[in-house]
């Protein structure tokens, strides 16, 4: 899906939920939509400053918080980076394959993995609220 199509889809979701997809939020969304790798907050800030010279760290973190709350992005915990979710129109389990050489991130949606995790958690009396599983390795291009 193109950046334009993803952006339009995000605008529809925001409109349906009665929230504002501000210019800054849209710009950060577009920056994330243009890459297949995880991007750190400060790297995003530097990119955003090209069009918003007065942007501060709080600017980017507020935008990222909003995008995460809307389900538009995933946080890659192991690298403290963010990536766009192309499937934000529905809730889904998330497994991320992170390339340690180029940083490319592939998003999987295995219901079997999520089901097994939930089953084992339930056996231990634990209620899973959300899950993102990360696997680190080397992608096809870098092998």
UniProtKB/TrEMBL annotation:
Quote the record's binding site residues for Zn(2+): 99, 102, 139, 142
Keyword Metal-binding, does the record have it?
A: yes
Q: Name its co-factor(s).
A: Zn(2+)
Q: Which domain of life is it from?
A: Bacteria
Give the matching InterPro entries: FUR (IPR002481), Fur_C (IPR043135), WH-like_DNA-bd_sf (IPR036388), WH_DNA-bd_sf (IPR036390)
Query: Where is the protein found, in the record's own terms?
Result: Cytoplasm
The cofactor note from the UniProt entry for this protein is: Binds 1 zinc ion per subunit.
Q: Name one GO biological process term.
A: regulation of secondary metabolite biosynthetic process
Q: Which UniProt keywords apply?
A: Cytoplasm, DNA-binding, Iron, Metal-binding, Repressor, Transcription, Transcription regulation, Zinc
Q: Which Gene3D superfamilies match?
A: 3.30.1490.190, Winged helix-like DNA-binding domain superfamily/Winged helix DNA-binding domain (1.10.10.10)
GO cellular component annotations of the record: cytosol
Task: Give the chief site where it resides.
Answer: cytoplasm
Q: Name one GO molecular function term.
A: DNA-binding transcription factor activity
Similarity comment text for this entry? Belongs to the Fur family.
UniProt subunit comment:
Homodimer.
Can you say what this protein is called? Ferric uptake regulation protein
Q: Which organism is it from?
A: Pseudoalteromonas piratica
């Amino acid at each position: 899906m193109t950046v334009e199509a993803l952006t339009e889809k995000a605008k529809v979701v925001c409109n349906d939920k009665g929230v504002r997809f501000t210019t800054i939020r849209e710009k950060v969304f577009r920056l994330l939509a243009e890459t297949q790798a995880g991007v750190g907050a400060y790297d995003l800030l530097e990119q955003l400053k090209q069009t918003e010279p007065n942007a501060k760290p709080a600017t980017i973190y507020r935008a990222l918080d909003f995008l995460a709350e809307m389900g538009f992005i995933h946080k890659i915990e192991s690298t403290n980076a963010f990536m766009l979710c192309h499937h934000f129109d529905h809730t889904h389990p998330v497994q991320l394959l992170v390339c340690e050489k180029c940083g490319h991130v592939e998003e999987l949606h295995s219901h079997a993995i999520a089901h097994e995790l939930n089953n084992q958690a339930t056996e231990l009396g634990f209620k899973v609220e959300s899950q993102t599983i990360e696997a680190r390795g080397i992608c096809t291009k870098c092998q």
